Amino acid sequence: MLKRKAYDKLLKWKHESAGKTALLIEGARRVGKSTLARTFGETEYKSCLVIDFFQAPAEVKQYFEDYRTDFDSLFLYLSVFYNVKLYEHETLIVFDEVQMYPQARGLIKYLVADGRYDYIETGSLLSIKQNIKDIVIPSEEESLELEPLDFEEFLWGMDEKGLADLIRMSFNKMKPLPDALHRRALSLMREYMLVGGMPEPVSIYVKQRAFAPVDASKRRIVQLYRNDISRFATGYEFKVVSVLDGIPGQLSKHEKRFKLSSLDKNARMRTYEEAFFWLADARIANICYAASEPSVGLSLSMEQTALKCYMADTGLLVTLAFSDNNDTDEDVYRAVLRGDIGLNEGMLTENYVAQSLKANGHRLFFYSQSGKKEGEERMEIDFLVTRPYVNAAGKPRISPIEVKSPRRYGTISLDRFRARFNKRIGMAYVLHPKQLEWDAEAQLAHLPLYMAFCL
Fold first, then answer.
1. Cys bridge to 217: 19, 201, 333, 422, which one at CB 3.0-4.6 A?
2. Residue 190 pairs with which residues in a beta bridge?
3. Distance (Å, rounded) from C-alpha 328 to C-alpha 279?
4. Which of 200, 226, 195 is nearest to 212 (CA)?
5. Which 8-state DSSP code applies to residue 53?
6. What is the pLDDT of residues 304-331, one digit of tens each?
7. CA atoms within 13 A of residue 451's CA, in its CB half-sphere
8. Over the stretch 189-225, which tens digit does the pLDDT of each residue have?
9. Rounded-to-integer distance, Cα 356 and Cα 450, Å
10. Order of strands, edge to edge, in the sheet holding 379-389?
11. Chain-centre distance of CA 143, in angstroms?
12. Are the beta carbons of 164 and 189 closer than 8 angstroms?
């Protein structure tokens, strides 16, 4: 299994919870939830029993109906059916794809209270109506969101842990890497943007160093998502597909805010709101909302009608961008990697940064001011995050983040934003394809794009 940061979070849950809570691993289809849970159970416990409710026969599901108040019998029959011996306090039971059988999730409260075993649930689309109908969501359930591999995890998979550690050290000390390592990190980052962070494509690339089989794997994932839309987004599947297919086109424009008029001139957010929620709930897309009055509580000024929609995985964004053909040739990928084909760099880099921030636990916000009102200056800040600020005794402040793909650029919007909201601002960042530059007096860091996972 590829090394995942989430594994350490599972260890922390096991030791701190000590069986008092179950853990629910949420995430997109094919993001590695099942592999992570199974590997954790087989490594950290004496035995591990995995019930995959996507494939579980009716007989197994009937056990949960017939013995919901008789756990002795329930555990006995599950143990025999799956041929796994259960040890009190030393066995992990995994409810895999639990959204396919919500009744098992509803039983977690009582299984945890029983106290014999530990429980991990995995699932996607856990909030849609049919998956929570007729069950009480257990308060004994902790949640962990599993994202695609970030660039640091990709480096681990590529046997580049030393480079990953140097990047972190460079960020912490605000000192640039040597030029040769800087170029190497940038090159690997470009590979990562094309491959993405879904475990299967990454594993293929690690073994084969070829893009064509990676492209085939990503296309299978996108098709799986389309099938899920047809199956679960009943009644508004056309709108969900329209938004999904519209993401590359929207992100390739200078103004990356999602304009519904590109889908239908009469479209309104109130009629498409459910489509955006569905894609976000399925972890297919990352939604970035406008914050009209930036402060530490960014959610307080969130405008739900003004949003940007990113793919949760940049590699899948590339696949969507190439979806006009049934497959994408190896030479095409390598031409993009060299910069010989004009696949919009701004689209990829901004999506990559959004993915990196989301993997670090940030909700996504941006700031925009049109400049059309009298006395108003035009401003567009790509991302706003809240980070501890050393010059404010470690208290949280807003950090504006600008993403620049060309080597020559301006920072007019960032300068205006910092001047207007000066007292609310901590460190400011520009992510660009050049070396690290640190202005201590201005509290402004120009970071190479490969450092996005450090923010």
1. 201
2. none
3. 25
4. 195
5. T
6. 888 999 999 999 999 999 888 888 888 8
7. 31
8. 999 999 999 999 999 999 999 999 999 999 999 999 9
9. 10
10. 302-311, 285-291, 365-369, 379-389, 395-403, 428-432, 444-448, 437-439
11. 15
12. no
Residue 238's CB is within 10 A of a number of other CB atoms, namely 12
List, edge to edge, every strand of the sheet that includes 118-123.
Answer: 47-52, 91-96, 118-123, 22-26, 141-145
Residue 317 and residue 351: Cα distance in Å, rounded? 8
For residue 27, give the nearest of 135, 148, 127 by alpha carbon: 148
Residue with tokens 């009480």: 136
Measured from the Cβ of residue 1, the count of other Cβ atoms closer than 10 Å reads 13
Instruction: Write out pLDDT tens, residues 100-153.
Output: 999 999 999 999 999 999 999 999 877 655 666 666 777 889 999 999 999 999
Lookup result for tokens 């969507």 = 320
Where would I find the H helices in 364-420?
Answer: 412-420
What are the angstrom distances between the C-alpha of 317 and each of 240, 246, 248, 365, 450?
A: 16, 11, 7, 20, 18
**Shortest CA distance to 116 belongs to which of 171, 75, 144?**
75
- 13: nearest Cα among 110, 138, 120: 120
Q: How far apart are CA 277 and CA 308, in angstroms?
A: 13
**CA nearest neighbour of 367 among 401, 331, 415:** 401
Longest CA span, the chain: 75
